[in-house]
Amino acid sequence: MANSPQLFGMTAKQWRDTNPELKGNIRDYATINELICLSNMENINAVLINDGMPQGERLIKLNRIAIQQMQVLENNDDRRLLK
Question: How far apart are CA 80 and CA 41, in angstroms?
Fold first, then answer.
């Protein structure tokens, strides 16, 4: 996603510049929660594009959703396993 919200706290280029010794890309080093959130954001972005939402509005909305999702995914204290 061009000009996407920075789920990882930096752009992919910034990550490459900061980590020239690492092979692959930022996704290769992401946590499972970051990958889940990223996948969700890509799907939601596609829906918002289809709905005709302008890019600026999409970025704001996606950022808010990503923050909320990461908070939920990282909050393991209240989680219960299905049995």
Answer: 25
Phi, psi at 68, each rounded to 5°: -65, -45
Cα→Cα distances 2→10, 30, 35, 42, 83, Å: 13, 19, 17, 11, 41
The encoded tokens of residue 35 equal 């990958």
User: How far is 69 from 40, CA to CA, in rounded Å?
Assistant: 9
What is the distance between the alpha carbons of residues 54 and 76, in angstroms, rounded to a whole number? 35
Give the number of other CB atoms < 10 A from CB of residue 75.
9
- Separation in Å, CA 50 to CA 41, 46, 47, 63: 14, 6, 5, 18
Q: Could you give the CA distance from residue 66 to residue 39 in angstroms, rounded to a whole number?
A: 10
User: For 49-61, what is each residue's pLDDT tens digit?
Assistant: 999 999 999 999 9
- Rounded to two decimals, the pTM is 0.75
